[in-house]
């Protein structure tokens, strides 16, 4: 009997150790779009400051479509998207929760020597009619256009909201970036480059964020923005995911969003 009690005690300690280790390694991935990735990572960092919180990971982009597929198939608990769900996606049981409105910023390599453009000039740049920054008062340097694929959420928003972009045929002399992060890094690395993506304060480090028609992306009258949303199945019961969704509605999360130059969306 003594042996049995000792064995039971050891087993109990082992199980307690396993449970403690499991608690320490709880991890929740939020997969999907590259738009707003900086914003979501800072929200996650703020959430993880709470005692007992799981490890929240915001991995590199697999696109809004990839996030929707992962959540819909059960491979991911939470996803992130920068476009609205289609009727079919919503009918499959996926819930769409807006958390932030992200201005669609135009960024250039600082060597271009230009900090402001008009919407007409942007159309001329992306159509290929303007080919050198000196034509805009900048450096004598070739304009190197960085674009996104046609399905990209920011490009979709630009076509819907930016003057002259609805039917704009982007010059063939352009580089197509497959993620927001690739577009940003290309503009950062290539002399004369211009690109676009959702605005966040980190873009101001080592890049020039353009004013458009006199408005900076954080101005109320800036003409274009996309929405960052979280997605999950309507049957969601995971306590860590539910806790994070509740945190996304708090004033603390709203303050994080505002500090990065975006606009929180009220629940």
Describe the structure.
The chain has about 270 residues and is an alpha/beta fold. It has two domains: about 1-100 and about 225-265, Periplasmic binding protein-like II (D-Maltodextrin-Binding Protein, domain 2, 3-Layer(aba) Sandwich); about 105-210, D-Maltodextrin-Binding Protein, domain 2 (3-Layer(aba) Sandwich), CATH 3.40.190.10. Helices cover about 35% and strands about 20% of the residues. The protein has nine helices and twelve strands. Strands 1, 2, 3, 4, 6, 7, 8, 9, 11 and 12 form a ten-stranded mixed β-sheet that branches. The protein has a two-stranded parallel sheet with strand order 5-10. Helix 6 (about 155-160) links the parallel strand 6 (about 145-150) and strand 7 (about 175). Helix 2 (about 35-45) packs antiparallel against helix 9 (about 250-260). The radius of gyration is 23 Å and the shape is elongated.
Main attributes?
D-Maltodextrin-Binding Protein, domain 2; alpha/beta; 9 helices; two-stranded parallel sheet; disordered N terminus; 267 residues
């Amino acid at each position: 009997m003594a042996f049995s009690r000792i064995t039971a005690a050891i087993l109990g300690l082992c199980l307690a150790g396993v449970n403690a280790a499991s608690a320490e390694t709880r991890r929740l991935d939020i997969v999907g779009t590259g738009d707003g990735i900086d914003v979501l990572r800072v929200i996650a960092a703020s959430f993880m400051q709470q005692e007992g919180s799981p490890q929240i990971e915001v991995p590199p982009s697999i696109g809004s479509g990839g996030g929707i597929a992962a959540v819909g198939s059960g491979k991911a608990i939470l996803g992130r998207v920068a476009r609205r769900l289609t009727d079919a996606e919503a009918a499959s049981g996926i819930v769409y929760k807006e958390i932030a409105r992200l201005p669609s910023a135009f960024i250039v390599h600082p060597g271009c020597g230009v900090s402001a453009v008009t919407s007409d000039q942007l159309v001329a740049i992306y159509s290929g009619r303007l080919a050198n920054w000196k034509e805009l008062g900048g450096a004598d340097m070739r304009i190197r256009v960085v674009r996104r694929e046609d399905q990209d959420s920011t490009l979709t928003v630009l076509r819907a909201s930016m003057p002259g972009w609805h039917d704009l045929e982007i010059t063939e002399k352009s580089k197509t970036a497959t993620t927001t992060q690739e577009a940003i890094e290309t503009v950062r690395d290539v002399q004369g480059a211009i690109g676009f993506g959702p605005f966040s304060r980190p873009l101001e480090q080592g890049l020039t964020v353009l004013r458009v028609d006199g408005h900076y992306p954080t101005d109320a009258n800036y003409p274009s923005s996309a929405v960052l949303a979280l997605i999950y199945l309507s049957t969601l019961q995971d306590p860590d995911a539910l806790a994070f969704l509740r945190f996304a509605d708090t004033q603390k999360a709203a303050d994080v969003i505002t500090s990065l130059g975006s606009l929180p969306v009220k629940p």
